[in-house]
Known about the structure:
Helices cover 16% and strands 20% of the residues. The protein contains three helices and nine strands. β6 (189-195) and β7 form a beta hairpin. The longest helix is centred in the N-terminal third of the chain and has 20 residues, at 7-26. It starts with 6 loop residues before the first helix and ends in a 10-residue tail after the last strand.
Amino acid sequence: MGFVFDLGCCTLLISALLAASATSQSTEAPICDANGNLLVSGMSYRGTASRTRSGRLCQMWTSDTPHALALDFYEIFGEDGGLGMHNFCRNPDGTRDFEDLSANVVWCFTTDPDVPWEFCDPCSTPSTTISMFPGFVQYDVMYEGVGGGNPTPLRFSTAFNPDFIEESLSNVEVADCANACNTSPTCLGFFAYFDEISSVFMCRTLSNLGNAVSTGLQSMSYVRNSITTTTTTT
């Protein structure tokens, strides 16, 4: 008893499978929009971008050189976080871009020993400059909270002390925090942070900044470096 192979039928079946595969690939949802914005969440991004916004090459996640924290991230988040033996931009810890809280972002550790980590723009061409945090003329970033490759997350010790909180703002932008502090002659700085539970950006203007303490929040601590006073005459 022999076996009969219908080669013509098999050829048609293979062709159909190949066509279906090509159709599936061509109709796959895009990850970038026309303006160069990432459409998928940073935590789910599995693309192959490997350079930062400033053009720096990303460090391997399984390497501890030049930044040892990269290997720590790999051991903590592993393949579930999209990490492995590669240097592709990822966002395993859900880091937010404080300049655009609604943006989907990814980041990586860099191969530059002097620059631990930077955001990536997988949908656009790397630029020559990068701003990690919004800057304001009258303020300096004193401490950075968790997020990205920050090895020493810190905040003002008075950030949650009601004795020193002048104003609490919710669902705002960082600029709103600076404006609120600007209107108070006794405000020395402000603490801005992202509340993971409510998914809302918040800040507190402070009359006393205290010392630095460790934090588990994605946050920024701004210190006011000048206070403008206005004198009026009648």
